[in-house]
Amino acid sequence: MIRFATPDDVPDILRLIRDLAEYERALHEVKATEEQLRESLFADDPKVFAHVVEHEGRVVGFALWFLTFSTWNGTHGIYLEDLYVEPRFRGHGYGKALLTELARIADERGYGRVEWAVLNWNTPAIAFYESLGASPQDEWTVYRLTGETLAKAARG
User: Fold this and answer.
1) pLDDT in the model for residue 147
2) 65 with 49: CB under 8 angstroms?
3) Contact 103, 80 (CB under 8 A)
4) Where does this protein have coiled-coil stretches (predicted)?
5) What does the DSSP 8-state code read for residue 26?
6) What is the DSSP-derived secondary structure letter of residue 82?
7) How far apart are CA 18 and CA 28, in angstroms?
8) Per-residue pLDDT tens digits for 25-65
9) Mean pLDDT over each residue of the chain, to the nearest integer
10) Predicted structure pTM score
11) What is the Cα–Cα distance from 152 to 85, expressed in whole angstroms?
């Protein structure tokens, strides 16, 4: 049911990324291609990883993640970039199984945390995460450089 993604899963992962972006009202922001995902996930030394969930042989959900590092704890952690299960397959325990697998990996490898961001308006996701014991980190605000502001910062 839950397994590491393979190169054959890339079209499904991109389809699910687009579905997630549409749900988050940001489909127009998806620039990723199958080639980029394949190169990133299956490089000789990958920096990003994915798990998929199958229902009757069809990929219906995924978790895409990468390693972080805590200077205070001195350990790696997992940053969950995206977790998505098709709406009609929610309530089957697939999202919980994906998070459980990431928690298992973190625990097994001695990582100090699994963390992610959620949109403030996504109350179903927030309720789901809190039902698993996750807690919001309200004292932190995420900042981002992207596009022209990134290019300007790079120039100094």
Assistant:
1) 92
2) yes
3) no
4) 13-40
5) -
6) E
7) 9
8) 999 999 999 999 999 999 999 999 999 999 999 999 999 99
9) 96
10) 0.93
11) 37
Going across the sheet that includes 75-85, the strands are: 2-4, 49-55, 58-70, 75-85, 114-116
What are the backbone dihedrals phi and psi of residue 18, each rounded to the nearest 5 degrees, phi first? -65, -40
> Which residues are within 8 A (CB) of 49 and not within 5 positions of it... i.e. 6 or more apart?
4, 5, 41, 64, 65, 66
Residue 130 has a pLDDT of 96
What is the Cα–Cα distance from 83 to 4, expressed in whole angstroms? 14
For residue 54, the number of C-alpha atoms closer than 13 Å in the C-beta half-sphere is 10
d(CA 102, CA 63): 9
Nearest alpha carbon to residue 136 among 116, 121, 111, 122 = 116
Cβ atoms of 14 and 41 closer than 8 Å:
no
Q: Which residues are catalytic?
A: 129
**Domains delineated in the chain:** 2-155 (3.40.630.30)
CA 47 to chain centroid, in Å, comes to: 13
Tell me the residue ranges of DSSP E strands in the chain: 2-4, 49-55, 58-70, 75-85, 114-116
CA dist., res. 136 & res. 116, Å (int): 10
The pLDDT, as a whole number, for residue 122 is 94
